[in-house]
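Tip: read the tokens left to right.
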């Protein structure tokens, strides 16, 4: 069983950002999440994550992904604080105490390699063990090796050393074989070599890339495995790299969805995060954004300029143009929009109609209820077969606290009604247009006026 270490301590200066590089998002997830998922697929005994810059935020992102992966509890998660970011070799030295407790091979990867596959790491570890190496690492040939350390080989074609780009001569910079910071080490050999590293380079840092050369000089075996897929091993160094990979992942995602039975009218303008699920025979129109862990059922329609984030949508629902829905559930057969906003754990029931310029916040809307025009329903519970007239507002905030509005089944709320919470509207009630309801209304009543009063019983 191997252990895995993820390097995630640096700022990533070429990103030109105050945010740690591994926290930049790709396909709706922080970069570090991809490395954590890949590492956990190896089922390591220990997963060590070296943190430094914005350590608390990086740790939070790692824990979220760690907890999201099934079976992650079989691995022990260890955070290593690199107080000074003095290079990847220094990161190993920062983890010296934790690594001293490990016994198996150690796979080391960067926190910014989102395309790296666990199968590649498994093959690397198998080669490392089979050949009895002290260190084994992946290299790859790149048409444009800018930003990567170059692999220098001797006259016999054997690995001699890695030279970081900033330390490379013009002739070395022309080498296309690069080090992509994916290693498997004998842990004891790694620690011994790390103690002998020196910062004799332009950056004044301790390079992990120097470890294989140190091991060679000590008479130990080092293997360099040339990988045949440069794209898989591509790291993120700049925002240009990030955008290019975002585009590639997006194309792959929409293609997978179309092959599974989803219609994408214009895939080039459709933006769908990696964890989104969409059922067959659903139709997604141009300029739609679906983010987070959203799930769209079968036979749904999502029209243009709509944004969905962390939304669960049942079968045969329709989301019309220009709607924004977040952290909410839309049941089967519901129709939402155009220009609707639904947020904060709202629950839209079966066959409900939420129309144009209607906002629903933290509310539960019962089956076959309709709010067709220009309404705000916040902190409310609506029963079945309720009709909300245009201009209706649940006045849920008194300046200090939010209050609940409860509307029972078969209620008809007249246009421009103000429901001043806390208030309960009984079964079968009707309110007159322009009413301001400040007190509970008993079932089967007609209430009108400012403030609203009960004029008569309807039954």
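Filled-in amino acids:
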């Amino acid at each position: 069983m191997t252990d895995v270490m993820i390097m995630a301590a640096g700022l990533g200066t070429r990103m030109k950002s105050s945010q740690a590089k591994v926290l930049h998002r790709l396909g709706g997830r922080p970069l570090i999440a991809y490395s954590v998922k890949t590492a956990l697929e190896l089922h390591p005994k220990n997963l060590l994550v070296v943190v430094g810059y914005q350590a608390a935020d990086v740790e939070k992102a790692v824990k979220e992904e760690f907890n999201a992966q099934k079976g992650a509890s079989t691995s022990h998660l260890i955070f290593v604080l690199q107080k000074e970011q003095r290079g990847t070799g220094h990161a190993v030295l920062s983890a010296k105490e934790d690594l001293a407790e490990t016994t198996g091979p150690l796979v080391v990867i960067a926190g910014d390699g989102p395309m790296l596959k666990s199968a590649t790491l498994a093959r690397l570890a198998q080669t490392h063990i089979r050949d009895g190496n002290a260190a084994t690492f992946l290299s790859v040939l790149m048409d444009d090796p800018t930003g990567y350390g170059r692999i220098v080989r001797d006259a016999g074609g054997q690995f001699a050393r890695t030279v970081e780009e900033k330390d490379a001569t013009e002739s070395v910079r022309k080498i296309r074989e690069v080090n992509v910071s994916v290693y498997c080490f004998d842990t004891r050999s790694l620690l011994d070599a790390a103690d002998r590293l020196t910062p004799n380079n332009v950056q004044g840092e301790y390079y992990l890339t120097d470890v294989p050369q140190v091991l060679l000089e000590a008479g130990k075996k080092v293997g360099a495995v040339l990988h045949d897929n440069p794209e898989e091993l591509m790291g993120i160094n700049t925002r240009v790299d990030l955008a290019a990979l975002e585009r590639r992942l997006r194309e792959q995602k929409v293609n997978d969805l179309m092959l599974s039975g989803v219609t994408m009218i214009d895939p080039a303008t459709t933006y769908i995060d990696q964890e989104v699920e969409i059922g067959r025979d659903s139709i997604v129109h141009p300029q739609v954004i679906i983010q987070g862990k959203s799930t769209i059922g079968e036979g749904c329609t999502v029209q243009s300029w709509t944004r969905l984030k962390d939304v669960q949508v049942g079968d045969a629902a329709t989301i019309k143009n220009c709607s924004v829905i977040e952290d909410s559930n839309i049941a089967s057969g519901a129709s939402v929009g155009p220009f609707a906003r639904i947020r904060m754990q709202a629950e839209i029931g079966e066959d409900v109609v939420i129309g144009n310029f209607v906002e629903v916040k933290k509310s539960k809307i019962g089956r076959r209820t309709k709010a067709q025009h220009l309404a705000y329903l916040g902190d409310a519970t609506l029963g079945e077969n309720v009709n909300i007239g245009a201009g209706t507002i649940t006045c849920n905030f008194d300046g200090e606290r939010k209050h609940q509005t409860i509307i029972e089944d078969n209620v008809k709320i007249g246009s421009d009604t103000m429901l001043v919470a806390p208030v309960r509207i009984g079964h079968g009630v009707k309110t007159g247009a322009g009413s301001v309801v400040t007190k509970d209304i008993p079932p089967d009543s007609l209430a009108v006026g400012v403030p609203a009063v009960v004029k008569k019983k309807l039954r």
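The two ends are 75 Å apart (CA to CA). The chain has two domains: 3-239, 252-457.
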